[in-house]
Design goal:
This protein is of the alpha+beta class and 429 residues long. The protein contains seven helices and 22 strands.
Length: 429
């Protein structure tokens, strides 16, 4: 079963970001053994494997958080209890004895659902039918009825948790670490902080979860989506016809190129046909909880510390000779996008004494006051000296460059191959 299908089985009301419960800052002590950390990892994986993340025990607050103290959370808890059993206790899931049951072909006893919620949350579940989820769950007073895909028994974990550190804070335990893809274990798209209380369950030492906050390591997830899923940051899939080359020729980088003080993810695809080559600059929109594509360009962009980007034209088939036409874009922090400001092309007297594209019109020596053998065509509505298709001399061109770059330093981008080992390097950023 595909991950997207599994996610659709869950309560879609969960969001990506939240503020965890605040706990008194008492003397924090670690002292947990590796065996205990492993047990904590297994405990927290009961939530992450169902993508049940970003919740607390409050009655209200952040709209992007599931508040288990609110009665409206019962629907999500019911969904957790049912899907946990579908994954871990398949023997509890039975075919509905009613032929062509209008509420679904599967049932589970409500007591089993309540037991799972009690085991992991230490909360008493209030049974009710739930119709705002996919699938809906119908409560008949004893069992829950629902439907899943025919291959539901093949449901697999989505993500697993690895506790890297745990410490006692008062009477609570703070656990933190990474959440990794259950199949592609090197993909670790989230970090987390969880709070739990110690308890005994069925005679064994365990915990009850109080809050779980997950923070997206968005750049790693986007990098893995590109390397493994062949997906661009804008959500588009790479054309299958362009995947025949050596994918390791593509490149990744993670650094601040727009000058806002925060690093961006750079993806450069250049292993397909020339027409398919493309370069992306992406950031993460915390408010919207999704990637923000700042720039889509021809590979080989030169970035500057003042937020400018110099993009060479894909082709140089004009009169420029050794000069390569390019455009300049400037990052706008208000929109989170690069905005193209102008472009420049040139005419080289040495390469083209006459213009073969315009009846062999001779090079405009009168405009080349400096005598360096070049005139330029600047298209920029925001620059007074630009004359579009009418040539200007080198000093005007230099003034145009200075108008945007103004001596700004170029950004040194450290590219790595678009491979698993390359992503390992990004993890250190």
């Amino acid at each position: 079963m595909q991950k997207s299908q599994i996610l659709s089985l869950l309560f879609c009301c969960l969001a990506v970001l939240f503020n965890p419960l605040q706990h008194p800052a008492k003397a924090a002590q670690s002292g947990f053994s590796q065996t205990q950390l492993t047990q904590m990892s297994a405990f927290l994986s009961n939530f992450t494997e169902l993508a049940f993340m970003n919740f607390d025990r409050k009655k209200g607050g952040d709209e992007d958080t599931l508040h288990l103290g609110n009665t409206s959370s019962q629907a999500a808890l019911i969904g957790f209890g049912i899907m946990h059993n579908c994954l871990k206790n398949k023997s509890r899931i039975k075919p509905c004895p009613l032929k062509d049951c209008e509420h679904g072909q599967l049932i589970i006893e409500a007591k089993d659902v309540a037991e799972s919620v009690k085991q992991f949350f230490d909360l008493d579940l209030k049974h009710a039918s739930v119709d705002q989820t996919d699938p809906p769950y119908f409560f008949d007073g004893k069992c829950y009825h629902f439907s899943l895909a025919p291959d539901w028994e093949g449901i697999e974990s989505l993500y697993r948790a690895e506790v890297k550190e745990a410490r006692q804070e008062g009477n609570l335990i703070r656990m933190s670490g990474e959440i990794y893809d259950a199949i592609e274990t090197k993909a670790r798209p989230y970090t987390f902080v969880a709070y739990a209380k110690s308890r005994t369950w069925q005679g064994k030492e365990s915990w009850a979860i109080l809050s779980l906050r997950c923070t997206s390591r968005w750049f790693l997830k986007a990098a893995w989506d590109f390397v493994v899923g062949f997906k661009f940051p804008n959500g588009e899939d790479i054309d299958k016809d362009e995947l025949g080359g050596n994918f390791a020729e593509n490149e990744l980088a993670f650094c601040d190129v727009n000058g806002d003080g925060q690093p961006e993810l750079l993806i450069r695809f250049q292993s397909g046909s020339i027409a398919s080559h493309v370069e992306f600059v992406s950031s993460f929109d915390e408010k919207k909880g999704r990637l923000n594509v700042e720039l889509i360009a021809t590979p080989g962009v030169e970035y500057f510390k003042n937020g400018c980007a110099k993009e060479k034209a894909a082709h140089n088939q004009g009169l420029a000779g050794a000069f390569w036409p390019y455009s300049i874009s400037v990052y706008n922090p208000k929109t989170g996008k690069y905005e193209q400001k102008g472009s420049v092309d040139a005419w080289s007297r040495e390469a083209y004494p006459t213009n073969p594209f315009d009846n062999d019109k001779p090079f405009p020596k009168a405009m080349d006051v400096t005598g360096d053998g070049f005139v330029y065509f600047i298209h920029d509505a925001g620059f007074q000296g630009a004359r579009g298709d009418q040539p200007v001399d080198t000093p005007v061109y230099q003034a145009w460059v200075g108008h945007y770059l103004g001596g700004a330093e170029p950004v040194k981008v450290e590219w790595v191959p678009a491979t698993a080992s390359g992503i390992r390097v990004l993890e250190t950023k």
